[in-house]
Amino acid sequence: MPFTNILIIVAFLIGAVRAASGNSTISVEGPTIVSVVFRYDPNKVAAAVAGGLYSIASVCLFMRLSMNKAWWGLCLPIASTFMSVGFFMRIPMAMNPNSLPIFMVQQLFTLLPPAAYLAFNYILYGRFIVNCVDRRYSWIKPEKVARYFVISDITTFLIQGGGGGLEASTNVTSDKLGANILLAGLVIQTLSFAFFMILVAHAWHGIVRDGFLPRQEPWGPILWILMFSSTAYMIRCIYRVIELAQGNGGYLITHEIYFYLLDSLPLLTGICTYIIYWPTKYLETSAKPTNEMTGRY
């Protein structure tokens, strides 16, 4: 299994262990965990629909991956599966608003899987540069892009996990500290991913500058799906940063509809892109096409 996939799975296991720790329930007296953090009662129907859609996406991605034996992309369907669990956990969370384990599993499994979605794009970028075009189009050695960015994301992943855990506290000071830590992790993740998008745009510009038209090349769809899915993920990153920057009583965090429209939907759109355009097809059919890339120096 690739090194990056191992790191992602280990990070998920750490999050799961953290979620299962602590007291099982908080006293029902006073504000509940859900009311303190969200200021609304989670909609169980919406959670079930979102969980169902992510489950379907997970099955489709696993099928795509197994049919093509592209085990390097295992992080994508695994993350989607975790996220579907996170949505389904919003149902018992609505019925048990003071259950700390339920709240933490829900938080961690909806906040953290997107890091693996980003990791898939990092891996795909490196494989595209190495197999389809030329290393000179990348600012960073393509073989190391995934490792650098995944390490960055796992660092922010753990920061967000720690912040999410503290945010569950009914202590006002701990809750505020957790929100600030979570915000810091998301800001760093957003900036890191923005740099990755610039990296993709730079490679795209260099390829076009050398006279190649991506829409006419067999590997062309990879650039389009990379940028399209990355843009969808960036919408979610920006939303999360603004949401947390507004504070615990901010408009976005207290209205559940934005969680689905600006978080869940963009992420689902991004991963479903790969159900339709699984990249292995373009990587294998266009690997160093007739050595033309080196012939046009």
Automatic annotation (TrEMBL):
Primary localization class, coarse: membrane
Membrane-related topology note: Multi-pass membrane protein
Compartment annotation: Membrane
Residue ranges of the TM segments: 46-63, 70-91, 103-124, 145-166, 178-201, 222-242, 257-278
UniProt keyword terms in alphabetical order: Membrane, Signal, Transmembrane, Transmembrane helix
GO cellular component assignments: membrane
InterPro entries: RTA1
Annotated signal sequence range: 1-19
Protein name: RTA1 like protein-domain-containing protein
